[in-house]
Write a structure and sequence with these properties.
It is built from 4 helices and 8 strands, in the order ββααβαββαβββ. By secondary structure, it is α+β, with helices and mostly antiparallel strands. The strands form 3 sheets. A 3-stranded antiparallel β-sheet has the order 2-1-3. The chain has a 3-stranded antiparallel β-sheet with strand order 5-4-6, with no helix packed on it. A two-stranded antiparallel sheet has the order 7-8. Strand 1 and strand 2 form a beta hairpin. The chain is globular.
Length: 165
């Protein structure tokens, strides 16, 4: 599989082409490896329970949007796009929205690694410091991402279509 960067992807059933999961990532090959690892370490999660039951060979990853321009100021763009594709495909196995309903903030805080300048979700920082960062950070800077109120559909309380520059 060609390596894809800054992308929104789907996990599909290869027999029915049904979209079961929509996600976004900075590097798809790493995310696939991570999904397979998590399916063993967290087999009770809805997605992994389903995949483990039928086997990875019955699923495929498809990139629906790639090469999204991401900087430290607009990392939320991928999450907005991911949420839009979730609305479009209505996947059965996504368990969380990308954004907190009725609020203006991203579902997970982003943290900037002080030493290597990587931007990560707060819950993923410990894995980053253990495996990826060349120098273990001592202090992390929290970056709050706010989504304006007009990006939400009042009925569904989820992000509505937004114009992306």
């Amino acid at each position: 599989m060609k390596n894809h960067f800054n992308c929104v992807y789907t996990i599909n059933n290869i027999h029915t082409q049904e979209v079961l999961y929509v996600g976004s990532c900075l590097k798809l090959s790493k995310r696939i490896t991570n999904h397979k690892y998590e399916s063993k370490t967290n087999p009770d999660r809805k997605l992994y329970k389903y995949i483990n039951h039928y086997g990875w060979n019955n699923f495929e990853f498809k990139v629906v949007c790639e090469n999204i321009v991401v900087s430290t100021d607009n990392t939320h763009i991928m999450r907005i796009l991911e949420e839009q594709f979730r609305k479009l495909y209505k996947p059965q196995l996504n368990t969380h929205h990308c954004f907190i309903e009725n609020k203006k903030e991203h579902i997970s805080k982003l943290i900037k690694c002080k030493y290597c300048d990587s931007i990560l979700q707060k819950w993923n920082m410990s894995r980053h410091t253990k495996y990826s960062c060349k120098k273990k950070p001592v202090i992390e800077e929290v970056i709050d991402i706010e989504i304006e109120k007009n990006h939400y559909d009042d009925e569904t309380k989820t992000p509505s279509c937004v114009d992306i520059p």
